[in-house]
Design goal:
Blueprint: H1 14-23, H2 32-45, E1 56-62, H3 77-87, H4 92-100, E2 103-110, E3 127-131, H5 149-168, E4 173-179, H6 184-195, H7 211-229, H8 237-244, H9 247-261, E5 265-268, H10 271-283, E6 291-293, H11 302-308, H12 325-343, H13 347-350
Parallel strand pairs: 1-2, 1-4, 2-3, 4-5, 5-6
Helix pairs in contact: 1-2, 2-12, 4-12, 5-9, 6-10, 9-10, 10-11
């Protein structure tokens, strides 16, 4: 696997950052989580004057072989249909990217569909469609690993290269979303594997399974995990990721690792992206310093997954759309923390008595 040089954020500036926060003209600690966010962002960027310039959103698409086992209420064609919808500006991700000024890259990493010719985004000057297809979906991990080691490495590289493209445009903040029918299944198994949580507690309704559907999903994933335990991949992190993961999920891991390596702020979305974040943290623990966990979604087990890494999500709105929409919804809170550092006056300049 490709290696990354990811270091914990340098804490040398921490005292100076805290002094600036405490001297803003407000009661000490009165802006709560905004002050914590400001500290994190300043440490990531190693400055007292942080910036969220040129925010980018990666929307990564891929299909999953396990979908053939009826573990999702949605058929796989919804993946490619939604990818086309995103290029037309009609998705939730489009709305939030427009609202908050994000450049949107819609990326086919492994969709089971031929986008020929490639869709041309309509009326969306800040949207790109990119063909980075590794294969037309992963294999069915009920019977064999979802991807080969070569495909795994390719997906990691795709994610890293996408971040490099964002950085070349001046990006300082990255959010990532996904589109892949049945991708809650590998996410649930990763949660079980890395959180030591019973598999049954890791499985939810996904896009809308009923109780019998959830039970069927559990039985399929339980059987798949039993086969994994007898496979050569068992015991290796990369083996677990390649055995179960989707191309869009592994590309997200690569993107997160490159973003952390290059000191970008990473907004982590819901259930699937939290699973990818945990995978990235398992590979490089220091990557967590660069992550802001944006919300606790409505998917069963998401809170338990956040607890695995001790994350404190910013929002709890009952979201479970995916696409990175929760991360985009939380962006204004991060923006407020940055504006606090750059725009609030301090006691001296405002000629206000410092009363603590």
């Amino acid at each position: 696997m490709k290696t990354f040089n990811i270091q914990p954020t340098n804490k040398t500036l921490q005292t100076a950052i805290q002094a600036k926060i405490d001297n803003l003209n407000k009661p000490k600690g009165s802006l709560g989580r905004l002050e914590e966010l400001a500290m994190q962002v300043c440490l990531i960027q190693q400055t007292l004057h942080p910036s969220l310039a040129h925010p980018c959103h990666l929307l990564l698409g891929g299909d999953h072989g396990i979908e053939r086992e009826g573990v999702s209420v949605s058929p796989r064609e919804v993946t490619w249909q939604q990818m086309i919808n995103f290029t037309q500006g009609g998705g939730g991700v489009n709305m939030f990217c427009r609202q908050h000024g994000f450049k949107l890259r819609i990326v086919d990493v492994g969709v089971d569909y031929s986008f020929t010719p490639a869709p041309s985004p309509k009326g969306e000057g800040s949207v790109l469609f990119l063909d980075r297809k590794i294969a037309r979906g992963t294999k069915n991990f009920l019977y064999e690993p979802a991807m080969s080691e070569e495909e795994f490495n390719q997906a990691i590289q795709v994610g890293a290269d996408l971040v490099d493209d964002c950085i070349s445009e001046g990006c300082r903040l990255l959010s990532i979303g996904e589109m892949g029918i049945a991708n809650t299944s590998p996410s649930s198994i990763w949660m079980h594997l890395f959180g030591n949580i019973p598999l049954e507690e890791c499985i939810g309704a996904g896009a809308g399974l009923d109780a019998p559907g959830i039970r069927h999903k559990y039985e399929v994933l339980s059987k798949a995990f039993s086969k994994y335990k007898a496979s050569p991949q068992r015991g290796r992190l990369e083996g677990a990721f390649s055995y179960f993961g989707g191309f869009e999920m592994v590309a997200a891991i690569g993107a997160m690792l490159r973003a952390a390596e290059q000191h970008l702020i990473i907004l982590v979305d819901g259930f699937i992206m939290t699973a990818c974040a945990i995978a990235a943290i398992r590979l490089y623990p220091a990557a967590q310093d660069y992550m802001i966990f944006t919300h606790c979604g409505d998917e069963s087990g998401h809170k338990k997954m956040l607890d695995i890494v001790g994350a404190k999500p910013l929002l709890n709105l009952g979201l479970r759309l995916g696409e990175g929409t929760g991360a985009l919804c939380a962006f204004p809170i991060v923006d407020s923390a940055v504006r606090m550092m750059n725009e609030m006056n301090n006691f001296d300049n405002a000629k206000i008595t410092k009363y603590f």
